[in-house]
C-alpha cells in the first residue's frame, strides 16, 4: 500500500510539473526549429530564429524599452511603496485603515479597467501615448504590491533601533536612510524584483498606453497577428531566460543563508 501511495505521489508530481513546464519546453524546442513553420516534426537544432530576432531592430528596441520601463517603474513603485509603508507604520494617521485599503485596492481591479481609466485620464491631461504613460501605469499596478510587502515587514522591533539613533542625535532623514532602509532591504528588494517581473511581461496597460515606441509583449502580439512564426518562439524563449536570470539573482542575493 505504501508503494502504491509513493508511485501515485510521483505520478501526481510529474503531472503537475509537466502541466507547468511542458508549454515552456515546447516553446524553447521549436524556437530551435530550422524550418519556417514551428510545427512537428522537429528539424534542428538551429539558432536561425535567434539571429533573426537579434537582427530585428523593432524587436531589439522593444526589448530595451521593456527593460527600461521595468527598471524605472519598479524603482518608482518600490520607493513610493516604502515611503507609504513607513508613514503608516510610524505615524498615527486619521482613517489609516481606510487609506491602507485604498492603496491596495488596485490589486483587486482588472488591468484592463486600470488601463482604460489611465487612458481617459491621460487624454484629458494631454499626455500622449508613450513609454512614459506605460511606465506610470506600471507604477500604479505595482505600488500596492510593494506597499503590502514592505508594510508587512515593518514590525515594532525596528522602532527601538530608530529611537536609539534619534537619542544619539541623528536627524530624521539619517534615521530613515541609514537605519530603516538597510533593515528593510530584503523586503525592498523583494518588492523591486516582483515589480520588475510583473512589469517585464505586462501587456494590457502597455498596449493601451503606447503607440509608436512599444514594449516587447506588444511586439510579440504584433508578430502573433500574422500567424505562427518561429521568431515568436525565440522571443518567448529570451523572455523566459531573462525571467530565470532574475529569479536566480533573487535567490543568490536574498534567499542564500550564510553559514553560522
TrEMBL record:
Annotated ABC transmembrane type-1 domain residues: 63-250
Segments passing through the bilayer: 7-32, 67-89, 101-125, 131-154, 175-200, 234-255
GO BP term (any one): transmembrane transport
First and last residue of the signal peptide: none
Topological relation to the membrane, as annotated: Multi-pass membrane protein
Chief site of localization: membrane
UniProt-annotated location(s): Cell membrane
Alphabetically ordered keywords of this record: Cell membrane, Membrane, Transmembrane, Transmembrane helix, Transport
Family annotation (CDD domains): TM_PBP2 (cd06261)
Keyword Thylakoid attributed: no
PROSITE patterns the UniProt entry points to: ABC_TM1 (PS50928)
GO cellular component: plasma membrane
Family: Belongs to the binding-protein-dependent transport system permease family. CysTW subfamily.
PANTHER family tied to this protein: PUTRESCINE TRANSPORT SYSTEM PERMEASE PROTEIN POTI
Name of the protein described by the UniProt record: ABC transporter permease
Organism, as annotated: Mesorhizobium waimense
Taxonomic classification: Bacteria, Pseudomonadati, Pseudomonadota, Alphaproteobacteria, Hyphomicrobiales
